[in-house]
Specification:
- The chain has 349 residues and is of the alpha/beta class.
- Helix 4 crosses helix 5 and helix 4 crosses helix 10.
- It is globular, with a radius of gyration of 20 Å.
- This is L-iditol 2-dehydrogenase.
- Keywords: Metal-binding, Oxidoreductase, Zinc.
- Its cofactor is Zn(2+).
């Protein structure tokens, strides 16, 4: 089969690769219909390189079951599915408590196990989530990032009537905005330095868009909230700058949740850090999209709201490409040669 394999930073190859084979009675093989680029893929391509040289990459996907292990009775060939890409050990203290996102050996396909930038991928059967016929493969390939967004908001205990600020209007930020409105947020403030992203954020439910280029975000947010601040501030940009600024946005007793991953040291100046202490903020880290019972309610909840049309992913998709275009596409993204939102690959194309 053909696959995208990562050998090093900026060394991604479209090449012939061994097709997965069932080796465990509880595994399934999926024919990949659609697979998307995650923001973390871009950083790994540009800077970090693979965990294992030559690894087949990718973890946001949907497809059709083509083979099942002998002990799998919940799935059959022909089933339409997406799959949670996370793999947990099942033995560490966190796993024994059902806290799978905190597993000591947590990994995802595409890291140390072959991923979904390929014609076929193998996963444990328990990772699969069946799709209703009304949810197309394109949308289903984005169930994983949508689950990541709701996983983070679950941690905050968001309530109807809360005011929410979301810094960073990439995929996770735009999905978080939609979830916040579904949860009943009174006002959602979208913050970014790109006006086009802010317009899309408003299209998808944000009440206000704030361009934070060359301003202190908290000054504008406090002006707009009557000097109160927001109940919940979400960092989804993964920027070293916004990862410090986010502490200045909540009200006294407010909450901050980190969904972005800054690939650099976060230097928090005194003013921002004092907001944590003086305002008695609650600060949450959010990792992955899994909970108990595995893979977690995040997944079925996402499927439901996609089916109901209350989570909208179509406006976020900017490119639909063949898998063979992968290496050139990643180069264009990191060199900013084009307007890239969500990029989807089609292995059959």
């Amino acid at each position: 089969m053909k696959a995208l394999n990562l050998y090093g930073p900026r060394d991604l190859r479209y090449e012939e690769t061994a097709k997965p084979v069932l080796e465990d009675s509880k595994e399934v093989i999926i024919k990949v219909k659609v697979v998307g680029i995650c923001g973390s893929d871009i950083h790994r391509y540009a800077k970090l390189g693979p965990y294992i040289a030559g690894m087949t990459w990718g973890h946001e996907f949907s497809g059709e079951i083509v083979a099942v292990g002998s002990e799998v009775d919940s799935l059959r060939p022909g089933d339409r599915v997406t799959a949670c890409p996370a793999l947990y050990c099942g033995h560490c203290e966190s796993c024994r408590k059902g806290e799978f996102a905190r597993c000591e050996k947590l990994t995802v396909i595409g890291a140390r196990h072959p991923g979904a930038f390929a014609e076929y991928v193998k996963v444990p059967a328990e990772n699969c989530v069946k799709l209703p016929d009304s949810v197309p493969y394109d949308a289903a390939s984005m169930i994983e990032p949508t689950s990541v967004a709701i996983h983070g908001l679950y941690k905050t205990g968001i309530e109807a009537g809360d005011d929410v600020a979301v810094i960073g209007c990439g995929t996770i930020g735009l999905l978080t905005i939609q979830w916040a409105k579904i949860f009943g947020a009174r006002h959602v403030y979208a913050l970014d330095i790109d006006d086009a992203k802010l317009e899309l954020a408003k299209q998808l439910g944000a009440d206000f868009g704030v361009n934070t280029k060359d301003i202190e975000p908290h000054e504008k947010i406090f002006e707009m909230t009557g000097n109160r601040g927001v109940d919940i501030a979400v960092e989804s940009a993964g920027s070293t700058i916004t990862s410090a600024q986010v502490f200045s946005l909540p009200r006294k007793g407010g909450k901050v949740v980190f969904m972005g991953i800054p690939y650099g040291d976060v230097m928090v100046k005194r003013f921002y850090f004092e907001r944590i202490v003086r305002n008695e903020l609650s600060v949450y880290g959010s990792w992955n999209a899994i909970s108990a019972p595995f893979p977690g309610k995040e997944w079925q909840t996402t499927v439901h709201f996609l089916q109901e049309g209350k989570i909208k992913v179509e406006p976020m998709i900017t490119h639909r490409l063949s898998l063979a275009e992968g290496p050139a596409t990643f180069e264009k993204i990191i060199n900013r040669q084009g307007n890239f939102g969500k990029v989807l690959f089609y292995p059959e194309k």
